[in-house]
Write the structure tokens for this entry.
Amino acid sequence: MNSIANEVQAQIKERSPLSIWRILKNRWFLHAVSTIAFFIIWEYVARNRFLGSALARPYEVLLQLADMMVNPIAGKGLLGHIWASSQRILIGFAIGAVLATPLGLFMALNRYVNAIVKPVFDLIKPMPPIAWVSIAILWFGIGEPSKIFIIVVGTFVPCLLNAYNGVRLIEPQLYDVVRMLGGNRRDEILHVCFPAAFPAIFAGLQISLSCAWTCVLAAELVSARSGLGFIILLGMTQSKPALIVGGMVVIAMVAWLTTLLVTGLEKVLCPWKREIQTA
Amino acid sequence: MKTETNCKILCTHISKEFIQKSSQRVNVIDDISLDVRSNEFVVILGPGQSGKSTLLRIIAGLETPTSGRVALDGKDVSGPGSDRGLVFQSYMLFPWKTVTGNVELGPKLRGVGKKERREIAQHYIDLVGLNGFEKHYPHQLSGGMKQRVGIARAYANNPTVMLLDEPFGQLDAQTRYFMEKETARIWETDKRTVLFVTNNIDEAIYLGDRIVTLKGKLPGRMHEVYDVKLPRPREHTDMKFLELRQQITDASELVL
């Protein structure tokens, strides 16, 4: 119908002629400048030994990582150590998310559940998950269960909080819509609560995931024979800066990849979410 | 002349008090009585803070009056129900549902099969002039289009009464004028009993069979009732239109 036409807003992208000024203002150009500058400063600081011999040069780090691909450390190659850490995170993250998300939703939906769980949760909430390392080792020994336990604790809090707040912050009139259309409480939960809380739940998963990396590192630094935390600790005890920095770089890359995965999953599952352009 | 039986909606002596956090009582509506005939288009006209939205929410069943009663087809209203369709000022579309998804929600909740409810949804999407936008999400639509979805969603549930709460309050003047024309067209195509709340006097005269004005400032009280006997489609510049406009302006506290 032509009646719609006057309401559709056309988006016209202006194109200004190519100039040096435009290249200088280009986002990607600026990204490249800052990245290259970072590596130059790193190389400069490392080469001139401003920090003693404690900082490896970028090239040395790359060499070290390549070496680890071929020559295993403590019986595992680089990929083996990455998998060791990732496995702990996956298990801990899965358990934490599966326990915390439904509990957060229940707390938001039912005030009795909320009244029962909230005091205990509020007590645990401000405790840094790393504070659990010692007690976890006492309870579960130095094996895998203690590491997974710490990750579960670390992922639990952000997952629950986000699921809870996701439901609490829903515009109340959306419930009115369902009620006016003849829906009952079940319909309100199904058609309003779950979908509306979905983005918040996903934000919680994102935060949990980065929290899980902190936790696995802490656990591995205390006691482990494998994983990226173990690699970093080994670098320290053997004074191999390249090993430490290499471990850090790999963690950053793996964490970045998993975040990308979750973001991608969210885009598939929440197609209605307006894309927010990150500056 | 009017008996209770030929009234679609009958409100008798409705009052509403809200208790605020400081346990202060705020009287929002004071003794409003109103009757709406079947397939009549009644506009409730009042300035901001005159309790008109609360009155609509009481008739919708989303609020309970402190005293007085609301009857629909002679039966007391005790809660929200699918016999009334509500259109919200701020659209209240589900951002996670497409246009079709939003419009078909009513039939879906009533258990209508997929094929049938798609047909119903398509019918009302066409009626409000949104064909071609079925798969769009609300954030991809302009304000006027969003409210078209809101109207189609209310219509698709096949209510006997349509309640519209300042539906065009958030639109710019031009889109608003255009949507008023569309509302008149839709109503004449598919007649329902309509209760339309607005603070815009032109909108009221353009659309209403009858205009009920409320006094400004809380609590909301009935002021006057005007019968609009102008033929449709109406013209804003028609002499009779302007005379009535003057008459309402003079009589009410609306500043226009």
